[in-house]
Amino acid sequence: MAGELRFDDRVALVTGAGGGLGAAHARLLAERGAAVVVNDIGGTDVEAQQGASAAEVVAEIEARGGRAVVDTHSVATAEGGRAMVEQALERFGRLDIVVNNAGVGRPGAGFVDLPDAQLDLVLKTHLYGAFHVLRPAWRAMREQGYGRIVNTASATAMGVDDSWDYPAAKGGLVSLTRCLAQTGERHGIKVNAIMPMAFTPMSAQVPSDTIRDWMKRTFPAESVAPTVALLCHEEAPCNGEILSVGAGRTARVTYAVVPGFKTAEPSVEALRENWSQVMDSEGLLIARSGQEDSGLFGVGFEDLGVTRMGPDDGPES
Ligand SMILES: NC(=O)c1ccc[n+]([C@@H]2O[C@H](COP(=O)([O-])OP(=O)(O)OC[C@H]3O[C@@H](n4cnc5c(N)ncnc54)[C@H](O)[C@@H]3O)[C@@H](O)[C@H]2O)c1
Question: Residues 140-149: pLDDT tens digits?
Answer without folding.
Answer: 999 999 999 9
